[in-house]
Specification:
It is a single chain. The chain has a single domain, classed as Peptidase S8/S53 domain (Rossmann fold, 3-Layer(aba) Sandwich). It contains eight helices and 13 strands. Strands 2-3-1-4-6-10-11 form a seven-stranded parallel sheet, sandwiched between helices. It has a two-stranded antiparallel ribbon with strand order 5-9. Strands 7-8 form a two-stranded antiparallel ribbon. A hairpin with a 6-residue loop joins strand 7 and strand 8. Helix 3 runs parallel beside helix 6, helix 4 runs parallel beside helix 5 and helix 6 packs across helix 7. The longest helix has 19 residues.
Length: 371
């Protein structure tokens, strides 16, 4: 546990942000905090842009509420319904919380962040028509990067031999490809099920999540986690302070593109004032809190992508993805992955030192991105 609270850390709560130090984001900010000409849109539960750590970097003109499939750009429509809808606000702070002497800092504290709300007000689900609207809106408003820390509901995996599920895959894929063609790079969380997305069979007992779930065995090569498994989308797995795969993070050779800090409060505990292995970030109503998940890993990678886009403004989405992979640092597959110490392997890492199923091309490196 190398991440100790550095003396004279910039922001008041930064001593507990082991995740920034793990990827060199604290040092990167001194070289290049990112450009205000780069926007990362948080497609999520809404963002509380009145938070003092988010207000300085918030782009209202690139924000909307896409629930119902039509973008509502009226003032504040992009905000969370209640303080319980904190997910998007936390994600936004991880990307771009300002270095302003208040609270926390984001990975790219000089870039803009916007909010495209897609969560249903009744059940919090992210339905396909809302996500389609979000990708189209992001593209049409000139957003450079989107962060997607969710899967499209109601199915965790959408199987191509089911007409309804195939329609979801096709619709969301058309929208995200439209955005890519207009210059938008998408990053998405790999999922928190500790599933091997390159295996022959996965048991999914959580879908559909808007009615009674059924247990089914699916082939992840034929049934897709949307949007993370769509073409051109950067799939991000999660790591803890020891730079090991987080116990919950899904993985898979040829599926995971990069890894980033998502936290692991169970097995990877940092030497910080709070000793909290999760990720500290902004919460609604001027608050701060800890969360963990691949939901937290994706915005760290999106922040590094924003730093790269700031340095290479003409990079296309494909070039930006290449740059993100090129600067990543790969720990390689571990000899053993038995996190709970029961003698059984909790996950199997396939691949080599350069590319593998746990880390893809490696853990993102903010400092290398700005050098």
């Amino acid at each position: 546990a190398r991440a100790s609270g550095a003396a004279g850390a910039g922001e008041p709560l930064e001593a507990d942000q082991w995740d920034l130090r793990a990827i060199g984001a604290d040092k990167a900010a001194k070289i290049n905090p990112g450009s205000s000409r780069v926007t990362v849109a948080v497609i999520d539960t809404g963002v509380d842009d009145t938070h003092p750590d988010l207000a300085p970097n918030f782009s209202a003109s690139q924000s909307a509420n896409c629930v119902g499939g039509k973008a509502d750009t009226s003032a504040g429509a992009w905000r969370p319904y209640t303080a319980e809808d904190y997910h998007g606000t936390h994600v936004a702070g991880e990307i771009a919380a300002a270095r302003n002497g208040i609270g926390v800092a984001g990975v790219a504290p000089g870039v803009k962040v916007s909010s495209i709300k897609v969560s249903d007000p009744d059940n919090g689900l992210f339905y396909p028509e809302n996500v389609v609207c979000a990708f189209m809106f992001a593209a049409d408003r000139g957003v450079e990067i989107t962060n997607n820390s969710y899967y499209v509901d109601p199915w965790l995996y959408n199987c191509m031999d089911d007409p309804d599920q195939r329609a979801i895959v096709d619709a969301v894929n058309r929208a995200q490809l439209y955005a890519q063609r207009k210059g938008t790079l998408h990053l998405a969380s790999a999922g928190n099920s500790n599933h091997d997305l390159d295996s022959d069979a996965i048991v999914d007992d959580s879908s559909p999540d808007d009615s009674t779930p059924v247990t089914r065995t699916i082939d992840p090569h034929e049934c897709y986690d949307v949007p993370t498994q769509l073409p051109g989308v950067v799939t991000v797995s999660a790591t803890g302070v020891d730079k090991e795969k987080s116990y919950y993070s899904s993985y898979g050779e040829g599926v995971v593109d990069v890894a980033a800090p998502g936290g692991d409060g169970r097995y990877q505990i940092p030497d910080t004032p709070s000793k909290n292995g999760r990720i500290l970030s902004t919460m609604p109503n001027n608050a701060y809190g800890y969360l963990q998940g691949t939901s937290m890993a994706s915005p760290h990678a999106a922040g590094v992508a924003a730093l790269l886009k700031s340095k290479h403004p003409w990079a296309s989405p494909a070039q930006l993805q290449w740059l993100l992979k090129a600067q990543a640092d790969n720990p390689g597959c571990p000899d053993s992955y038995d996190q709970d110490g029961d003698g059984a392997q909790d996950a199997t890492c396939e691949g080599g030192a350069r590319v593998n199923g746990f880390y893809g091309f490696g853990i993102v490196d903010a400092l290398r991105a700005v050098k």
